[in-house]
Design goal:
Blueprint: H1 3-25, E1 29-34, H2 36-39, H3 49-59, E2 65-68, H4 76-90, E3 94-98, H5 101-105, H6 110-126, E4 130-134, H7 144-161, E5 165-166, H8 192-208, H9 210-228
Parallel strand pairs: 1-2, 1-3, 3-4, 4-5
Helix pairs in contact: 3-8, 4-6, 6-7
Amino acid sequence: MRLGAVLNRLRLAALLLTLTAPLAAAEPVILVLGDSLSSGYGIELAHSWVNLLQQRLQTQGYPHRVVNASISGDTSTGGRSRLPAALAQHRPDIVILELGGNDGLRGLPLEVVKSNLAAMIESAHQAGAQVLLAEMRIPPNYGPRYTEKFQALYGELARQYDVPLIPFLLDGVAAQPGMMQEDGIHPTAAAQMRIVDNVWKVLEPLLENRDSYSSTTNRTRGLTAHSSS
């Protein structure tokens, strides 16, 4: 083989490595779309459960990068309007959906809450992302009929869309001494690691199964990009 041909092949191989390196190095993204429970309300952001989740991922050897798109006071309607842009910008592998609590505290119609959450799950799936749905609860003073139906809608959506459900994000936190701020709604810094544990129980199996899911995700994203071009 001539020297010139060898050099050309080496140049081509180097070019291919350069082009594929950014794809290989791309970090899988976990997008957290929530309200004040996930935005770190009333505590230092470094102590929030979302930041602690990033730390746990790193210590456990997972390459994922956590993007926190949570806004204090947000509702399911607000999240529904914000999600498309967040999906387009960050292209997440996993979306943790933590919304609806403020809807319940305002006594909004349950059909509106359910419709908004369903639309967000569908949008995430269409973008090729898996969804973790965090169950929310509200105080009993809203009446048993409303509170029970509010809690139940999360399980109904999880079954309808076959998505993993985080059973009550504040399990082991709500009403526990030292775990809640003075308003009785927002968790303290001391409670954040317990929230991470609640999330991790449901999230870790998805991380373990990422390899089998990623090929489906890439195909879905490829079809979406092709259809929009």
